[in-house]
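Instructor's aside before we start: the two examples that follow are unrelated to each other. I chose them only because their records fit on one page, so don't look for a connection. First example below.
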Amino acid sequence: MGKILHREFVYLWYYFTLQFSQIAGYWAAGILIGSFISVFAKDSLHRLLGKMDETKVGLAGIIPACLLGIASPLCMYGTVPLAASFQRQGIREDWLAAFMMSSILLNPQLIIYSAALGVKMLWIRIISCFLCGVCAGLLVHIFYHGKNFFDFGSMQERESHDTDPNPVMRYLKNVWRNIRATGPYFLAGILLSALFQRYVPRQTVTAVFGGNEAWGVLMAATIGVPLYACGGGTIPLLREWLWQGMSSGSACAFMLTGPATKITNLGALKICMGIRRFLLYLAYVMGFSFLCGCLVNVFF
């Protein structure tokens, strides 16, 4: 019995260290670049959205709002108060919807992390998240034109943690906060992927998520709801699933529903939505991810 346990430990340690050596560089780069943007560029990015109303670009402003949402390093609990301040400044609801949707789905750190999945999946993630934000803005424009979609109440923008007068120390403290926030999930993701690699037959993953079947896309979209905890933690799992036969469309669906329904994001969104609009949001996320995943399977 002892020899069997020792053998299994050796196998798992091998798979764990192999995955870690292949992915850790992307995780570290994501933290370093994301912290740099958070400390030195965050305020400039957010001021750009605040000044967009002066440009009179109309509905087309959904596009730069999505791009700024993707570039924003804030978590959703930081984005909601920021969006509340934008609403008080008179920023359009469709722009806010596009900004918040894309901010939920993607950020600079997650873009770097996702490079570990390969160039094709990286671009699929970026484009699908961008389009999800654009469509969210368009739907709010169509069905809530002239009305408020969000209800931020008296919410105030959160106080920044990056207050150290020394810019180097501000950056280092931000890096350390990101390591503490994402590190445990990243290591847990590598451990889970090692367990999958050791104990789950490749044909099982292919049968559930593989091929061009709509069922695989639906399954991936569904498990993204409870399983997704942190972007860095899911990259090792997705990498392993893709290697074992998961289709690109199924991975796309998982990458959309995961962050969009992460419990912390849902908690923040519930603050600024009534139950009806909250349910509409969930239906939109599930429907868009399923449709997008099916289209990815057709064309990629």
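Example two begins here.
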Amino acid sequence: MADVNPTSPEASSSSELSRRSFLGLTAAGAAGTLLGGRPAFAAATALASDLAFLSLGEAAEQVRRKRVSPVELTRACLARIEQLNPRLNAFITVTAESALASARAAETEIQRGRLLGPLHGIPIALKDLFDTAGVRTTAGSGVFQDRVPTEDAEVVRRLKAAGAVILGKTNLHEFAYGATSAVSHFGAVHNPWDTARIAGGSSGGSGAAVASGQCFAALGSDTGASIRQPAAYCGIVGHKPTYGLVSCRGVIPLSWTFDHAGPMTRTVADAAAVLQVIAGYDAGDLASRPMAIPDYSAALRTKVASLRVGVARDFFFADLDPEIETATNEALRVLQSLTTGVRDVKVDVTGHEALRATVRLVEAYAYHAGHVEKTPNLYQAETLGRLRAGAEVKARDYLLAQRQVELARRVSGQIFAGVDVIVTPTTPIPPPLLAEGADVAASTALTVRSIRNTSPFNVFGWPTISVPCGFTRSGLPIGLQISAPNGADDVVLRLAHAYEQATEWHQRRPA
């Protein structure tokens, strides 16, 4: 399916049912009712930005109460995409026609009393690694620029079954093999807080789209940072679930051993709502693990006063940007007041980056070997170099690294003997300028430094979330990272939500 123009007649129209039944939020009454001297439909258009910046939970409540239509929400997001994508380049493919069709179908179902849940009728975007039947899935690469899957990824199937409206596919670092989202066949993603800076990667398009009100939530993937680092850099929430909790079947892999799929949203409650839909065992995914799935949204209402907070200062606080250190220490003071207390803990990550690099190199090359041989010219130079390096790793080294990863996952739970969660800064540096990663060497150095605090948790497989915890003097977002033992996603979400509610950082929006 080709890119769909969000300004097409399809995108500019709304069904009679929408105008008649759902405009209570923007213009009470039937179509043509005046609000401030303007026709009702004009009032709705004027409030498109206000609609687009509702939280997912707020939008879902308005839909449930029939005060706003899924069609109006979808049109609001499409209007934001039309306005902002030329500057931010967050989307590769916009499926306006099918999104509006899904929104109208949701509207009809809800009008008939068949509400499927909080995602029903809510516009959501997908990182362009997630297969979508009949819609191209490019991975940000010329190699796959015309690739059209015949089946949805498992998580996409679950989102559609929950009634979500799929807006399109977001831009990313080519094949998720980098942390800037500046290396893409479709051009660099720009940070909505400062368009001269990176949005992070590899899920940079998802982060920029959520932060700028182009969608209510997005899916990202995370192999070393790729949900949490762009979340921190774009001032939103990014949750990397427990390894194996969310299916990666139908998601173009970078490294099967470390890949995670998860939500990127503007609030923790929104992340919990998305996770509720996409979590669960998938027999078709070799990495999937049977786990208990609690009510994540209900868990947010559980008090956190009894939680014990550990702070991993060694390694994770080394060479911190001073403004990030200040913001993190202030966040720890807030957590101290919310919980039973904060104390230092030791998280040994010695050798983890070497382990991750060895495994990632081999697994990435294994997936790409045929394409590297046949169409090397279609890759970006940085990606091609990294992939070819995987061919040089000895089988012995890969197997030994795999055993060490498995051991780390088995014993890492011991770290939580005296604490319930572990807190660190999400990134040691604010979002760099795009120009700083202009060549391969500079981009590699930026990647290594910016994902230093996130990548160890892909080795452990722990659930880990990034939430906004401040801003630099120049107005760039700062993220706080909260982790818990494998399977304790509800605990991570509980504390992140409590912190979020005690602060106002998540309420800020980029100009």
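The two ends are 33 Å apart (CA to CA).
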